[in-house]
Amino acid sequence: MSAATQVRPIDLQGLDLESFRGRPVAVLGLARSGIALTRFLADRGARVTTYDARPAERLGEAIAALVERPVRLLLGPDVDPVEALSGQSLICTSPSISSRYPTTEPRLRRALGRLESEGRVPVVSEIDLFLRLCPAFTVGVTGTKGKTTTSSLIAALLAAGPEPVLLGGNIGLPLVERLPELKASHRVVLEISELQLPTLSRGTDVAVYTHVTADHLDRHGSLEEYRAIKRRLAELLPAGGAMVLNAEAPVTAGYAASIPAGTAVVRYRRQ
After folding, report:
1. Class of CATH domain 3-124
2. Sign, Cα dihedral of 118, 120, 125, 131
3. CB distance 187 to 24 below 8 Å
4. What does the DSSP 8-state code read for residue 192?
5. b/e for 6-15, b at 16 or more Cβ within 10 A?
6. Other Cβ atoms within 10 Å of 173 Cβ, number
7. What angle do CA 152, 155, 157 make, to 5 degrees?
8. What is the pTM of this model?
9. Distances in whole angstroms, Cα of residue 72 to Cα of each of 75, 87, 95, 112
10. How far apart are CA 96 and CA 30, in angstroms?
């Protein structure tokens, strides 16, 4: 990036809903999370550039979902992703896009890797941005199988109480657009996938594990790396948080050793 295109980066440590107003922000990917990010950021007054390597004719529904918001769209295989990354104060990524993932489009992966190595412009995923700004109590659910069922059951149980409940995340409902309406009294249940976990710098108040078996090794390289990625949710628990795990599953039971001090562990078994 040339000196002429450099702008002051957004400070993620002091982030609030007004931090984006008037600032240039790039969104990478125009699937569900990318659409939600683009709309949220545009509604918060950001100058949004959204990049996707797919041609515009394949993105008709996604473009229509932006509802004529003032967004700069860089679409198609002929667009250099460096153009989308240049002159930005923040880069926001969809779950499948990361310089770590061999499944990310090669040109974008290289450009994003170079930008991250420079360390000047922050890169944040949709779910990490949500957790940084969310004022509500959060429950994160992860594992290889059973995430959607478990997340849905937890949300249904919480909905029996007096507090309003939101269910989203990898279940297909990005929640970043709901941030302006959230209050401390809300309860948020997030299904979190192996794509999203490596991007987190903030955890949930409760981490729920189903079980962890071999999966997605094409992306993560080895079973050990996949297990380490799943452990991330436990590692990010705040003091006073809680971890819920299957005591009969050795891998998830072993994650209890990774939790911070002052964190509770709740173990369950099949009866």
Report:
1. alpha beta
2. positive
3. no
4. -
5. eeeebebeeb
6. 15
7. 110
8. 0.92
9. 10, 13, 21, 19
10. 11
| C-alpha closest to that of 73 among 89, 54, 87 | 54
For CA atoms 90, 127, 129, 61, the dihedral sign is positive
**Strand, helix or coil at 69?**
coil
Of 176, 166, 213, nearest in space to 194 by CA? 213
What percent of the chain clears pLDDT 70, i.e. is strictly above it? Answer: 94
CA distance 23 to 186: 29
Residue corresponding to tokens 């594992």: 143
The token duo for 242 is: 């809680």
Confidence check: pLDDT of 104 > 80: yes
Query: Quick one: 34 exposed, middle or buried, by C-beta within 10 A (0-12, 13-18, 19+)?
Result: buried
Contact assessment for residue 16 and residue 133, using Cβ atoms and an 8 Å cutoff:
yes
Tokens representing residue 239 in the block: 């003091």
pLDDT per residue over 29-59, tens digit each? 999 999 999 999 999 999 999 999 999 999 9
* Domain boundaries 134-268, CATH class: alpha beta
- Order of strands, edge to edge, in the sheet holding 71-75? 71-75, 47-52, 24-28, 90-93, 123-125
Cα distances (Å, whole numbers) of residue 246 to 169, 187, 241, 258, 266: 22, 23, 17, 15, 9
Domain positions in the chain = 3-124, 134-268
Rounded CA-CA distance 200/16 in Å is 17
